[in-house]
Every structure is written in C-alpha cells, then in structure tokens.
Write a sequence for this structure.
C-alpha cells in the first residue's frame, strides 16, 4: 500500500475535487448512461413515442453487490431477477440493455466496493434511465459525490442516486446485536426509493455540510484502508480462522474474491480483499474473526429477508 502516507486532508480533497467540479459545472459534459455513440442517451430522451418504447425488450435490470444481504434485499425489491456483479465479473458479462438499469451497492468508507468500481469501468449499459441505490449503516458522508465522480470517469451518467440507511455490518465499530434493534425505517424508505424509480424520477441526493464534516471524522479513523482509488485490504491480514472451523466451505462459496480454500480440514484465506465481511458474518461457527478485534465477536448479521444460500450463489466464484 504505497499510498499509506497520504494525509487525510489529501484524501478528502481528492475525493471531493471532481464532485466539486461537477457542482461547478467544470467537468466535461457527460453523455447519458452510455459510453459509445450509438447508445441511447438518457439525458437526450424526450417523452417517449410508442415506437421508442419497443426499442428495449427488457424493462429493468438491477445489478448488485452484497456482503450480508442488505443490497440483495434492495435489489430483489426492485427486480424479480437481479444480477450479481461478482457473477457478471466472473463470466465477463459487461453489456446490458434495458429500459431502466440500476446498480445497488454497499457504501465502504464513502465508496462503492472495488468490484463495483471495476464493473462500472468495463460496463456497457444501454438504457433510458440509469439509477443507483447505495446502502449504508451510519455515516454516508460524501458517498453520492464520490460515486458520481467514479461514474463520470467511466462515462456513466446517472439519472437517480439515493442512499438507504440499513443495518451497519462494519464489525470493528458496531455490535450486531445492538444494530438489529435500531429502527432505521428501512422498508418505509425503500418504498419511497422504489416509487421514485418506478416513475423514473430524476434526482441526485445532495450531500449536506454536516455529512461532509462527518466524512472528515470518518477518515480520521480509517486512514490507510479507504483511499480514493479504493479499499485496500489483504485477507490474510484481516482475518484469523480459529480452531472452531469445521471446514464446511461456506466461506469458500461466499467470498466474491475466491480468497478461501480448505487445507488440511481448516479454512485458509489470502488475497486482495473486498472487505465485504461476507465470510465473517456467514460462518456458522463464528470461526472467522477480525484479527484487529471487533466490537462483539459473538454477534453476526445477515439481512433477515435473504438466505445465506442466496448470498453464496451471488458471490461464489467456483460454481459454473
Ligand atoms: C468495509 C466496510 C465499510 C463500510 N463503510 C461504511 C461507511 O463508510 N459508512 C456507513 O454508514 N456504513 C458503512 N459500512 C456499512 C455498510 O455500508 C452497510 O451495512 C451495508 O448496508 C451493507 O450491505 P450488504 O449487507 O449488502 O453487504 C461499511 C461496511 C463495510 C463492510
């Protein structure tokens, strides 16, 4: 991690610079949700003529990334057949065409996960309406601006970006047994977002001064991990596998980076990590612990509307 010496202020500056430029209108003009000229440009679209409506065979595609099911729950609420970004990456499927395309992702230190970022870089999305929903648990800070900046770099122009407060699965700071007791009005807020998207509302959630300030304190605590170019973590440094491991293989199947393997009847992990914590939360024996410590090593979380098998299917890099 060569950027480790970068100062917090520099990080915030880098993260905010392009967003600020966008606010001032100094960014190059972006062209709808697409990257090449023959694609339809959402910002150019006028009220649709019936012939236009036939142009897309599919009404809506929702792409998602999830560690503990929050984003899968949101994606399932917006689409009957959401598409897993880890599976799309594995299969090299980057071209999608529909009337409406959406990305649902968890906020990691104000940013989308690395895999979402990489997917967006390669994606070719043809649509009339491009939307994103970012889930988070406590401090969203300047996430919407950061996401817009990244999308802009990859030629994607979003019509709608909203955040949704859900259970915070960040184990270093939160006790899951406490988190699940908080009433975050998830379904009420999700219904409002769904209504917006169903009516193709154009809206980019603003970032308040207070959120910018909260972002500053967030970076005081997480320096070195969440840098402007993404999340920096290595599985072998973050996770300790205790002798409670019974080699059930759930970690092998649930890791979207394929970082786990079973060796001599014990799970072993190494490699560049998304830090989604899917492995830690899903281990039925709580055998995977955070090496640097956590708020409550005995409490784990999975969105109650999502099965472990669904997250495994979404993330598994070993299935054909
Ligand atoms: C590595 C990591 C970083 C996170 N950073 C933030 C953050 O900066 N702000 C926040 O409010 N929540 C943060 N969270 C919480 C998640 O965004 C939140 O729990 C999300 O809904 C999880 O979605 P999932 O269940 O689909 O994985 C973080 C979680 C992880 C694992």
């Amino acid at each position: 991690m060569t950027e480790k010496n970068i100062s917090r202020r520099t990080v915030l500056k880098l993260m905010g610079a392009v967003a600020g430029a966008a606010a001032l209108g100094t960014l190059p003009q972006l062209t709808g949700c697409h990257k090449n000229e023959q694609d339809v440009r959402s910002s150019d679209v006028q009220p649709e003529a019936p012939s236009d409506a036939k142009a897309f065979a599919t009404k809506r595609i929702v792409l998602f990334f999830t560690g503990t099911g929050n984003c899968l729950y949101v994606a399932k609420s917006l689409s009957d057949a959401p598409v897993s970004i880890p599976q799309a990456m594995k299969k090299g499927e980057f071209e999608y065409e529909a009337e409406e395309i959406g990305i649902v992702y968890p906020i990691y230190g104000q940013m989308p996960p690395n895999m979402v970022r990489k997917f967006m870089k390669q994606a070719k999305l043809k649509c009339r309406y491009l939307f994103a929903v970012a889930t988070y648990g406590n401090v969203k800070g300047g996430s919407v601006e950061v996401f817009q900046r990244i999308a802009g770099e990859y030629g994607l122009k979003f019509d709608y970006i909203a955040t949704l407060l859900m259970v915070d699965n960040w184990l270093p700071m939160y006790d899951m047994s406490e988190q699940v007791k908080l009433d975050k009005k998830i379904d009420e807020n999700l219904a409002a977002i769904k209504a917006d998207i169903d009516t193709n509302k154009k809206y980019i959630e603003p970032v308040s001064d207070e959120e910018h300030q909260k972002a500053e304190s967030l970076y005081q605590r997480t320096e070195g991990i969440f840098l402007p170019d993404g999340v920096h973590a290595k599985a072998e440094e973050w996770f300790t596998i205790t002798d409670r491991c019974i080699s059930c293989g759930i970690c092998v199947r649930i890791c979207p980076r394929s970082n786990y393997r079973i060796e001599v009847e014990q799970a072993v992990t190494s490699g560049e990590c998304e830090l989604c914590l899917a492995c830690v939360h899903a281990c039925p024996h709580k055998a995977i612990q955070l090496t640097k410590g956590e708020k409550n090593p005995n409490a784990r979380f999975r969105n109650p509307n999502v099965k472990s098998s669904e997250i495994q299917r979404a993330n598994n890099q070993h299935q054909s």
In short: Residues 66-71, 106-110, 135-140, 166-170, 218, 275-277, 303 surround flavin mononucleotide (CB under 6 Å). The mean pLDDT is 86. Residues 2-222 form a domain with the Rossmann fold fold (CATH 3.40.50.360). The longest helix spans residues 8-23.
